[in-house]
Structure formats: structure tokens, C-alpha cells
Design goal:
Layout (H helix, E strand, L loop, with lengths): L38 E3 L6 H8 L6 H4 L4 H5 L9 E5 L4 E3 L40 H5 L3 E3 H6 L2 E5 L5 E2 L4 E5 L7 E12 L6 E16 L8 E8 L3 E2 L3 E4 L18 E7 L5 E2 L4 E4 L12 E6 L3 E3 L14 E3 L3 E11 L4 E8 L3 E2 L3 E3 L3
Antiparallel strand pairs: 1-2, 2-3, 4-9, 5-7, 6-11, 7-10, 8-9, 8-12, 9-10, 13-15, 13-22, 14-21, 15-20, 16-19, 16-22, 17-18, 19-20
């Protein structure tokens, strides 16, 4: 059943939904497969995307067939291994209640799971919506830094004894406004991320090099704060920039169509490769300013080329040979899991062809 080349599942996973739809599916794109099973027993290692893919032509639209509203997206429920997901064919819905069950009033019985407190490391924990292990580094490390953040970020200005490269336990001196924070991630600015459509620099890639912790804030007459390197994953040095350590990420990944019409392009592919495949991470040139939010799903297209028309004018008498524009060809989907102002991270879901920089990523049709 897995739709991913690799699925990393933790025993206690991100919040999911076990709500029952109040009526038949409305959206045409949320049609059920002709060969959809009558039921599926949830097992450890499943994701809700996997399960929905067994029933639906488009797995991303499962919130509609579970009857989720916007409030339930913000405060989701859980689904656990051992539960059975039923396909109620008469009502066009998925449910945790066997079709035909009644509450005594002639209405189908609704089984709603109460929200649970998230806990780590417990056997039998709730299943993931998507393979969370694939995106974990992108939730805790600022691998994309927008231009405005770079301008005011504190920097390592000096080191104890003038060390060129710093490691765990070394003392460093930081200049800049800490804004009350005491723990920081350290990064080194990388190359610019340019919008494939406009050519404008929207953000910079950043190489995560470690973390530092405040020991003593600057006092009058002293220009720098004293800090200790608490962890170094690569060589840290003078000039590297600091950003406050982010709070624990909330991983309520509920796929849905974007709130606004999105026409984006793939900006970059991580891991330094020219092509990306299933379960890899890319950036797109749209963010919260454009109406993207966490959980938005975009369809991936290869941009249609403009080619010569073989039956057109052959260029006689100096005329330019006619061309024709080929359509964009859809080949997969992209799940948005982290959003900045003008840039977002997306996890590549099912694809039938490699993803390339410049490919189209737009709202589902």
C-alpha cells in the first residue's frame, strides 16, 4: 500500500482526523476508485495518505471525504493502528463506523475520536498523515533564510583565543540584537534562491552548522554577548549568523487545496542534484504572502514547450516558421509542509517523472 519509496514512521505520530462526513463527496476530484476496497485495517507504518490512496483517485483530498471543516483542520483528531476505515458506498464517505450502523434514530452512528495529547515513543501511537521522517530536518533547521531576516541577524564577531574554526564547547562572541532569546541556531549564508519567473532573489539557502547558547549578555561598555557552542555539525566560524531556535513544530498535516489560486515554479532541489524524485524536498517561489499554508497540495507539471509546427509555413519569403505551444503535462503532486513569506518547502509525493527546477506547481484543477 505504501505510496513512497521510503516511509519513516514513529510510534507516536502527527495528529490526524477521524471525523465522519455529513453527506456525499461534492468535489469531482475526490472521486473514489472503481476498485476501492470495502474497508482497510490500519497497521503500524501506514500514513493517512497511503490509506486514502487505496480508496481515492487523489489521496490529498481525504479531508473532504472525512467531512473536515477548517476548525477541525486546526484541531485535528487521531487514527490509531488496529482501527478499521470503512468505505460507505451509499453515502460516498469514509468512516470509522461500519456502514449500516445506527444510533437508534435512523441515522448512521458517528464515531468521533476525542483529541489526544501528543506523546513520543509510545507503542500504538497515532499514524502519520505523511512520512514525517522525511521532512524532520526542514522543520528544525532554517535552510531557507529570507532577505529581511539576514539584514538583522546577530553574527559571530570573534572567538576566544582567535580560533578560526569553532567546535562544541568553544566560547564565541556575538554582536547584534538577541531580542530576548538565549538559544540559537547558527547558519552560513549560501547561494541566492531566484524566482524562475521574475529572476528576483526571494531568499538565500543557508547551511546549518550548529547551535550556541547565551552565557552572558552584553553589558554597558561591552559590544558583544558571550556564548558557548553547544553543538557543531560542521565547522563554525566568524561571520556565521544566528537565528533563535524555533519552538517545537506543530505537525498537523492536513492536505487541502490552497486558499488562493497558486501558479508557482520549483526553485531549487536539495541534496545538490539536478533531478528529484518521490519523498525528496524542493522549494517553490510562493509563500504565505501568496496564500500558501501548511498542508496545501499542488499539482506538478512539466512546462509545455514551444515547438515548430511541422505542417506550418516553412519559412519561405523570410517568414518566421510558425510554432505551437504544447500543454503542461501533470506528473505528480507536492505537499507543502513549511511556509515562509515568499518561499515554501514541499515534499514530493507520487510522481511518474523526475522533478526539475522550473517545473510548474499549481492549484489542483
Amino acid at each position: 500500500m505504501k505510496n513512497f519509496s521510503t516511509v519513516v514512521t514513529r510510534a507516536a505520530a502527527a495528529a490526524l482526523v477521524a471525523c465522519v462526513v455529513a453527506g456525499p463527496v461534492q468535489a469531482a476530484e475526490c472521486s473514489f476508485k472503481a476498485n476501492a476496497p470495502d474497508q482497510h485495517r490500519v497497521v503500524k507504518g501506514d500514513t493517512l495518505w497511503d490509506i486514502s490512496g487505496a480508496f481515492l483517485d487523489h489521496p490529498w483530498c481525504w479531508p473532504q471525504v472525512w467531512g473536515m471543516n477548517r476548525e477541525e483542520i486546526r484541531n485535528p483528531h487521531w487514527i490509531y493502528p488496529g482501527q478499521i476505515v470503512y468505505f460507505d458506498r451509499a453515502r460516498g464517505r469514509l468512516s470509522l463506523t461500519r456502514p449500516g450502523a445506527s444510533d437508534g434514530r435512523g441515522e448512521p452512528s458517528l464515531l468521533r475520536l476525542s483529541p489526544q495529547v501528543r506523546s513520543e515513543g509510545l507503542e500504538g501511537g497515532a499514524i502519520d498523515a505523511i512520512p514525517a521522517g522525511m521532512i524532520e530536518p526542514y522543520l528544525t533547521q532554517p535552510l531557507v533564510v529570507e532577505k529581511d531576516a539576514l539584514a538583522t541577524a546577530p553574527r559571530i564577531a570573534a572567538s576566544e583565543a582567535g580560533h578560526l574554526y569553532l567546535g562544541t564547547g568553544d566560547r564565541v562572541y556575538v554582536r547584534g540584537d538577541l531580542k530576548g532569546a538565549t538559544e540559537f541556531q547558527v547558519f552560513r549564508q549560501g547561494g541566492p534562491l531566484k524566482d524562475p519567473q521574475s529572476g528576483a532573489v526571494l531568499a538565500h539557502e543557508a547551511a546549518y552548522v550548529g547551535t550556541v547558547k547565551l552565557v552572558k549578555a552584553a553589558v554597558p561598555g561591552v559590544d558583544v554577548h558571550s556564548m558557548l557552542v553547544s553543538n557543531a555539525v560542521s565547522e563554525m566560524g566568524v561571520g556565521d549568523r544566528l537565528m533563535p531556535a524555533p519552538p517545537p513544530a506543530v505537525r498537523n498535516y492536513v492536505p487541502h487545496a490552497p486558499l488562493s489560486t497558486i501558479d508557482a515554479r520549483v526553485m531549487s532541489i536539495y541534496s545538490g542534484v539536478a533531478y528529484a524524485g518521490q519523498s525528496q524536498v524542493v522549494t517553490v517561489n510562493r509563500g504565505s504572502i501568496d496564500g500558501l499554508d501548511v498542508g496545501a497540495v499542488l499539482q506538478l507539471y512539466h512546462l509545455g514547450k514551444t515547438v515548430a509546427d511541422p505542417e506550418g509555413n516553412k519559412g519561405l519569403f523570410g517568414l518566421k516558421r510558425p510554432t505551437m505551444k504544447l500543454p503542461d503535462e501533470q506528473y505528480g503532486s507536492l505537499f507543502i509542509f513549511r511556509v515562509f513569506g515568499r518561499v515554501s518547502y514541499g515534499l514530493i509525493m507520487q510522481v511518474t517523472a523526475p522533478v526539475e527546477v522550473g517545473d510548474v506547481a499549481k492549484s489542483p484543477e
